[in-house]
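LAB NOTEBOOK - FOLDING QUEUE
OPERATOR: T.R.
BATCH SIZE: 2
PURPOSE: Compare the predicted C-alpha cell outputs for two unrelated chains run back to back under identical settings.
PRIORITY: normal
REVIEWER: second-year student, initials M.K.

ITEM 1
FIELD SEQUENCE / FIELD STRUCTURE:
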Amino acid sequence: MTHLPSLTKDHKGRPLELDAHSQIAPVILALAEAFTDDPATVGGRLELITALGRNAEDERPLDGLGHSEHARDSAVEDLLRDLGGTGLALPAEATPYAVGRLRSIAFEARRIAATMEARAEELNGQRHAAAAA
C-alpha cells in the first residue's frame, strides 16, 4: 500500500481521478472493527450522521442559517478521531518520494486549473457572442 494518493485517469469519463484508497482503507477497517466491538454505539453514531446530513439538505433553503451541516461535520470529525484520526504519518524514507509526488500533483493541478480557466473563458466568450446575436 502506498502512502500517498495517486493521480490516475478516471474510467468514468472524467479526465483525472485522485485515488485515495490507501488512505481510506485503514479508516474503513477501523470502522468495521469498532462496529464489530460495539455495534449499538457505532451504529447510533452513523445513524446520527445520516440524520444530520438529511436535515442539512432540508436546511439548504435557509442559506446557512441551519445548524445541521455543522453538527454533521463535527460528528464525522469526532468519529474519525475516535477511529484513529486522518493524519498520514510518513516514514522518513518515504519523505523524498512524498515530496516528489506532491510536486507532481501540484504540477498537474496547475495544468488542470489553466485548462479549466481557458475553457471557462471560451464558454464565457460564446455566451457573450450568443447574447449579442
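ITEM 2
FIELD SEQUENCE / FIELD STRUCTURE:
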Amino acid sequence: MQSVDESGRSEAVEGFASCGRRRALAGLTFGGAAFLTGCGDRIAGNRPRKSDITMAPQFVLSHQPVVPVLLEVDCLGVSLANVDNIFSSDPKDRSYALYFAMTASAVSDLSVVTQKHVGRKLFLIVNGEQMGVHPIDKPITNGILPVLLTGKDMDEAKARLLHAHLERSIAAIQYFHTKG
C-alpha cells in the first residue's frame, strides 16, 4: 500500500515528480502501450457474430415499394428518439423515431433520392414488414434519415427493442461488409 505524506502526495507521485523527464516519458509510453494492448484484447472479444444480424433495414419509395433505394449496408448506425404527439393532449401519448446515419456513399444517394422525390414517402422495411415512414419534404443532405415508427402498437418497450436489434444488426453488417 502506498503511503501519503502531509501534503497529500503519494510515494508514486513523489517518485514521478523526482524522476527524470526521459524516465517519466518512457513510463507513460509503456503504460499507454499496456493500455492499448488491454483494449485490443477486450475489443477482439466483442467482435460481432453473423447471428447478431437479426434485422436488415431497407428503405423504399412509396410509389416503388418493391425496389429498395437504400440497403442495410448503407446504414452506419441508428439512434432512438421520442417525439411529442401533436394530435393528443395526453403527455404519455408519444411517438418514436429512429435516426439512421448513412455511409459516405449513401449520403449522396440519399440526397439525390430525396431531391427527386419531394412530396413522396420513404418507408422503412425491416424483415419484410413496414416499420416506419419519412415524408420527404426537402432534400436530406446531412446523411441522417429520420424515420417515424409506425408499427402496430408501437410503445416505448417495442421501440427500444427494435432499436437495440437494429443497432446490433447494423454494427454486425458494417463489420462483415468492411471485412470483405
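REVIEWER COMMENT (ITEM 2): DSSP finds four helices and seven strands in the chain.
FOLLOW-UP: none requested
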